[in-house]
Design brief:
The protein is an all-alpha fold. Helices cover about 75% and strands about 0% of the residues. It has helices spanning about 10-40, 40-55, 60-65, 70-75, 90-95, 120-130, 135-175, 180-190, 195-210, 220-230, 245-250, 250-265, 270-294. Mean pLDDT is about 80; it is low at about 100-105 and about 110-115.
Length: about 290
C-alpha cells in the first residue's frame, strides 16, 4: 500500500520549523565559536598576518608592534595577546614615524628611513603615495590610511574563511553531541502538525523579542537560553537510552548522514536560517489567508 504523501502546506511548514531548529543550533554554534576565537585571539592573529604582509616582513614585532601606540593597545586589553583592531590613522602615524619626513621630502628613499629598516617594496609603495600627495603630509597620511583599509579587506576575508571552517567543525560536533539528526527531525516534523505549529509560533515570538531588543548581552546566559529552548521542543533531539544501539544497528549510517547534514546546515549561520524562517513564515501566512478567503 502506497503511503499518503504530505501536502504542500505540510512541507512548507516543515521547512519553516526546520529552519528555526537550525537557527537555534546556529546560535549555539556562534556562541561556542566566539568563545574559541576570543580564547585563541583569532582576530589579533589575522590582523598581525595582514600587517606583516603590508610591511613585507614576518618579524613585525620590533618594526611595528613595539611602537608605543600599538603597545598601549595591548596594555589596555590586560597586557595579553595582540590587539584585535588597529585604526587606519594609527597605522599611518606609525608608518610616518618610521621614515624621516622632516623637510617635507618629495621622495621616500632608503636614505631617509630610520634604523628600523623597511623593505624596498614598502619604501617604493610609500614613495608612490607621497608623490601622489605632492608633498602634502596630510594627503600623504590619508593615502597611507586608504592603503591600509584596502589591505584590511583581504584580512577580513581571511578571518571570515577561518571562522567558517571553525563553524563547520563546531557544527558537526554539536550535531553529534546533541544528536541533532536532520533526517530524523524532518521526519518527525512531517508527521506532527502540532509540533510544527508550536515551533513556528515560538520562532515568531523570538523574532518579536529580537525586534524589541530584549535579548541579553550575557554570552553564558544566551547559551543556556538557546539550549533550554531546544530541549523544550518536542523533537527527537538529544541522546536517549537506545540512541547508541540505533547507531550500531544496520541503519546506523542514516544517523551519521543526518549528523553530517545537520553540521553543514549549522555552519550556514544564524542570520541565514533566521532570514529563511521569516520568508517561509510569510509564505505560510499568505497561503493560510488565501485558504480562508476560499
Amino acid at each position: 500500500m502506497i503511503p499518503e504523501l504530505p501536502s504542500a502546506f505540510a512541507i512548507l511548514e516543515t521547512f519553516a520549523a526546520l529552519a528555526f531548529v537550525f537557527f537555534m543550533m546556529s546560535l549555539i554554534c556562534s556562541s561556542v565559536n566566539e568563545a574559541i576565537c576570543s580564547l585563541i585571539n583569532l582576530r589579533g592573529r589575522k590582523l598581525r598576518q595582514g600587517i606583516s604582509k603590508i610591511l613585507n616582513d614576518e618579524n613585525v614585532d620590533e618594526l611595528f608592534y613595539h611602537h608605543p601606540l600599538v603597545a598601549s593597545m595591548t596594555k589596555k586589553s590586560g597586557g595579553q595577546g595582540l590587539p584585535s583592531k588597529i585604526p587606519a590613522k594609527t597605522f599611518a602615524i606609525i608608518m610616518m614615524n618610521l621614515i624621516d619626513i622632516q623637510g617635507y621630502p618629495k621622495k621616500v628613499s632608503s636614505s631617509n628611513v630610520n634604523s628600523r629598516t623597511l623593505s624596498d617594496d614598502v619604501v617604493g609603495g610609500l614613495q608612490a603615495l607621497l608623490e601622489d600627495a605632492n608633498g602634502n603630509l596630510n594627503k600623504f597620511r590619508e593615502n597611507i590610511e586608504h592603503w591600509y583599509d584596502a589591505s584590511m579587506l583581504e584580512v577580513a576575508t581571511w578571518y571570515k574563511s577561518h571562522v567558517q571552517c571553525i563553524m563547520m567543525v563546531i557544527g558537526f560536533f554539536l550535531a553529534i553531541a546533541m544528536n541533532v539528526n536532520a533526517i530524523a527531525v524532518t521526519q518527525a516534523l512531517l508527521k506532527n502538525p502540532e509540533t510544527r505549529a508550536q515551533i513556528i509560533d515560538l520562532g515568531q515570538k523570538v523574532e518579536k523579542s529580537q525586534q524589541a531588543g530584549t535579548e541579553t548581552t550575557d554570552a553564558v546566559a544566551q547559551f543556556k537560553d538557546q539550549v533550554s529552548v531546544l530541549k523544550g521542543l518536542q523533537m527527537p533531539i538529544g541522546w536517549e537510552g537506545d540512541t547508541f544501539d540505533k547507531l550500531m544497528s544496520r541503519d546506523g549510517w542514516v544517523m551519521v548522514l543526518g549528523w553530517f547534514l545537520s553540521g553543514i546546515a549549522i555552519s550556514f549561520g544564524a542570520p541565514f536560517w533566521f532570514d529563511l524562517f521569516n520568508k517561509l513564515v510569510a509564505i505560510r501566512t499568505g497561503v493560510k489567508s488565501s485558504q480562508k478567503d476560499t
